[in-house]
Amino acid sequence: MGYNTALRGYTAKRLEEIGSADLLVGIPCYNNEQTISHVIQTVTHGLARHFGGLRCVILVADGGSTDDTRETARDFQIKPWQEKVVSIYRGPAGKGTALRSVFEAADMLNVQACAVVDADLRSITSDWVRCLLDPVLEKGYQFVAPVYLRHKYDGTITNNIVYCLTRALYGLRVRQPIGGDFAFSRDVAEFFAGKRVWETDVARYGIDIWMTTMAITSGFKVCQSNLGVKIHDAKDPGQHLGPMFRQVMWVLLSLMEEFEGYWKAVRGSRSVETFGFEGTLRPEPIEVDLSGIVERFQTGFGHFGSLWKDLFSADCFEEIRRAAELKAGEFTFPLETWIRILYELAATFHAWKRNRFKIVEIVTPLYYARVASFVRQTLDMSSEEAESLVEDQALKFEEEKDYLIRVWDERRDVAEPQ
Fold it and tell me: Which of 43, 62, 214, 405 lies at a C-alpha separation of 20 to 30 Å from 254?
């Protein structure tokens, strides 16, 4: 079934009654009854404190929560001069469809600026609202990505894949391309809403990287805003992030195909202007089971080693084989090998016409190998020192880009699994 809008009738009618607004804050949610009140409270206070003279609307875009998220959101009292709409979106389940409803609402209300914040945030402050919206309202930016102070092991997919690839491909140093909390102008909301992606994986789980990539490649004016520490329901990279790796990689690789002409012409990268919070707060520590991560990689080698030998170059496979024999306390997986694996993966994904999700699935254990190596390398580093290492990694992704283009163009005859 196709959906020509993510807004249900009652939601659209409520927005029509409101008529117009200056600012919209969207909160996509699903089973967040424990945190939704705090997020709404912070947003309503932030809007009142920093944008008291503007007409503001808060849209809670729910995915059909089975707990009391919607009831809690409806019952929470916001400032009397603000509006709140609690809705269940229409379309495929996922954050992307929730944000589609926010894009459509921003367009309907003809807002000047719109922000979206995650519903599981515990560290959000009223200043987040200002930091996200000010660059659009005061500086003329059209898309604002977040920057957070994060623990070195929070965001391993961003640190080891998404930031590095996005920077090398598209030439902008957007530190958190899948950060979750963004702001944008009405014309960008209209542009996003009009794209024909809402029956695809973008609607389910790929919305953040899709938004960032579309903003960059479409020439919108992009900046970042530092929001300080992000405390949310962080996940142990060994326990929970395999499915996220597969989802994010699928969308990343699909976008590479769509924008091949763009990224092939890009060399190097440039920084983007950064606004917002300045301070020295410390993020919460995250415990990582290094032995468990290494074990997941080694189990994967046992299952998929013969396939990896066919998929990857001889040099890469030799490093994979060597790493599979190492114990956790001595584990290393070279960055140069990891970069070439990702670039070869992209080229093979591009060459295959079917079974494409299979290749992403079978390389997931290699992500664990890289995370384990990153953890070992940064055991005695502060989060700030680890951040410098991430920047060094990203630069090496740029330096290896010619390799990507070469294997992308050459790898046309890779045998597909049956």
Answer: 62
